[in-house]
């Protein structure tokens, strides 16, 4: 499942002046007036040099160049790209890529299967978002509690897949002033917390903060999905803890906030770093009775 194997999935165009810690796929164009770095936290001991840490399906524009610390870079074949090499520095369509891996297998090359890969990923993440949005909420056992500017998603039970799902208006969560968001895990066997947020035009305001033990840990972030399944525009004025799944959303320029987990969006223009961890999605979801 693609959402479990990339740190950043952009279905359209991407622009950033910051870093992506793990691997990135851009199914549109990378249009990058500023310098940026990719694969900054990948580990050469368990990430093959020939594995792609950056994939760009369409055009590449980077007048200040980009850095790729570990792994290789792949480009789609439509349009075709002019690729030249000098040491560990490559020139692609006249723009520089510093390939810092140091291993001979690391390279920059065209990958003509990328267009098909992008189509499969697009269909897959869109289907996943709608599938998660349809999950029933166990309002008998689980609850959303709001008191003294703290919103707690309290998980006391999970379904047969180990999932606890919630469904709220995006504005009721992301649009509140001076709000602290927490996930409280009171049960064993939890595989995933899915917080479905509905609404087409969404803003995560700067005074909404995610914290608490679950959302502050890599373990919890790897098992939390913020599913903005209706969003077409998204403004991020603060950090997201956990996977941000918004495959239909155009994300407006964000400030220097960190995305702590996988980001899946339609298009993305940002100054924010995208950090680990990968999301852990239970394989082979079954229909619970």
List descriptors.
2 domains; 289 residues; 4 helices; 13-stranded parallel sheet; mainly beta
Q: Work out the helix count.
A: 4
Mean pLDDT: 95
| Largest pleated sheet | 13 strands, parallel
Structural class: mainly beta
Q: Count the domains.
A: 2
Taking the alpha carbons of the first and last residues, their distance comes to 24 Å
Global geometry: elongated
What fraction strand? 35-45%
Determine Rg (CA atoms, Å). 19 Å
Spans where pLDDT lies below 50 across 5 or more residues: none
Count of strand segments:
28
What percent of residues adopt helix (DSSP H or I)? Answer: 10-25%
Task: Record the SSE blueprint.
Elements: E1 8-10, E2 14-16, E3 19-20, E4 24-26, E5 30-31, E6 36-38, E7 52-56, E8 60-61, E9 66-68, E10 72-75, E11 83-86, E12 89-92, E13 95-99, E14 108-110, H1 114-133, E15 143-147, E16 150-155, E17 163-169, H2 170-174, E18 179-185, E19 192-198, E20 201-204, E21 208-210, H3 212-215, H4 218-221, E22 224-227, E23 233-236, E24 240-241, E25 243-254, E26 259-260, E27 263-270, E28 274-275
Parallel strand pairs: 1-4, 1-27, 2-27, 3-6, 4-7, 5-8, 6-9, 7-10, 9-13, 10-14, 16-18, 17-19, 18-21, 19-22, 20-23, 22-25, 23-25, 24-26, 25-27, 26-28
Antiparallel strand pairs: 11-12, 12-13, 15-16
């Amino acid at each position: 499942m693609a959402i479990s194997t990339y740190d950043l999935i952009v279905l359209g165009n991407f622009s950033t002046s910051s870093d992506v810690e793990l691997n990135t796929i851009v199914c549109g164009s990378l249009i990058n007036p500023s310098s940026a770095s990719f694969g900054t936290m990948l580990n050469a001991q368990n990430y093959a040099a020939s594995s792609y840490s950056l994939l760009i399906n369409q055009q590449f524009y980077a007048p200040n160049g980009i850095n790729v610390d570990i792994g290789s870079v792949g480009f789609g074949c439509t349009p075709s790209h002019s690729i030249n090499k000098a040491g560990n520095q490559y020139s692609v369509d006249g723009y520089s890529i510093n390939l810092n891996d140091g291993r001979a297998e690391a390279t920059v090359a065209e990958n003509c299967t990328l267009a098909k890969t992008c189509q499969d990923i697009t269909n897959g993440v869109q289907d996943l978002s709608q599938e998660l949005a349809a999950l029933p909420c166990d309002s008998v056992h689980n609850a959303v509690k709001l008191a003294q500017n703290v919103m707690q998603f309290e998980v006391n039970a999970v379904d047969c897949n180990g999932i606890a799902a919630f469904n709220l208006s995006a504005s009721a969560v992301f649009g509140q002033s001076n709000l602290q968001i927490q996930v409280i895990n009171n049960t064993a066997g939890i595989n995933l917390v899915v917080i479905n947020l509905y609404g087409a035009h969404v803003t995560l305001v700067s005074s909404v903060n995610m914290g608490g033990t679950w959302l502050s840990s890599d373990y919890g972030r790897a098992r939390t999905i913020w599913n903005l399944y209706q969003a077409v525009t998204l403004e991020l004025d603060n950090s997201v803890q956990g996977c941000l799944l918004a495959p239909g959303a155009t994300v407006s320029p964000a400030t220097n906030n960190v995305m702590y987990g996988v980001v899946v969006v339609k298009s993305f223009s940002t100054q924010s770093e995208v950090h680990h961890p990968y999301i852990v999605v239970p394989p082979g979801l079954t229909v619970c009775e």
